[in-house]
Amino acid sequence: MAKDETEAKTVREYRTAELAGEAGIPVRTLRFYRERKLLPPPRREGRIAWYDDHHLARLRTIAALLERGHTLGGIAELTTAFESGRDVGQLGELLGIGWSEETPVRLSPEALADYFEGEVTPENLAASLDLGYLATDGEEIVHVSRRLLDVSSALVREGVPLAAVLETGRRVRAHADALAALFTELISAHIAQDDAVTRLRPLAKSVVEAELTMAMDRLLAAAPAPDDPAAGTPASGAPATGPDQTPSS
């Protein structure tokens, strides 16, 4: 490896006072964050604590999340959820990323908080990690799909709680897996080429989109008008849809 490349890969390190100065916080605040386990432990060299750019990025994230109304306790819980979640490599193995048409999105924790203002809780974060929507890559978060990110944030802006969006996503996942198996079996049974499933996937997607559109049309057509006296009023606490009906997102 060339000398220039070696120097470029050298990680910059800071003593405690230097790191606090770079982050714009008092040294006592940095030590408080460390005691609260909001920062990973520094590298020790005798009695000297050495921090690096990952610690600086974490301090800037803490400051940004505090500005957005998160408490230190909440930030600590979010940090724990991130650190116990899947990393990008594990997510790729889980979801088969590599041949997918979806575009992953890299986000800072504060950018994620901006997408879902007030809804980035430890519970929702854990659910997103469990579903495989999110993974971690160092100090960054990776969302598996630009389309899912945009749709989810749009629903939240319309007033749908993120927890409900994620639960619907979990239920949709089961139906999507069944549809994928159905079309894979259909194509494989009648076409011998190795690339047939990948090549004909757009046709399967078109069938699913058309059927979903027609199904929603049927539901809307069958629903009574708001001023229809025959519609009645659901009993207090009773669901307005059937027990097996999956909300559409």
TrEMBL record:
Cited Gene3D superfamilies: 1.10.1660.10
GO molecular function: DNA binding; DNA-binding transcription factor activity
HTH merR-type domain mapped to chain residues: 13-81
The UniProt record lists the keyword Nucleus: no
Stored SUPFAM superfamilies: Putative DNA-binding domain (SSF46955)
Entry superkingdom: Bacteria
Region (Disordered): 221-249
Pfam families named among the record's database cross-references: MerR_1 (PF13411)
Keywords assigned by UniProt, alphabetized: DNA-binding
Protein name: MerR family transcriptional regulator
Source organism (scientific name): Streptomyces subrutilus
PANTHER family linked: HTH MERR-TYPE DOMAIN-CONTAINING PROTEIN, REDOX-CYCLING DRUG-SENSING TRANSCRIPTIONAL ACTIVATOR SOXR
Matching InterPro entries: DNA-bd_dom_put_sf, MerR-type_HTH_dom, MerR_fam
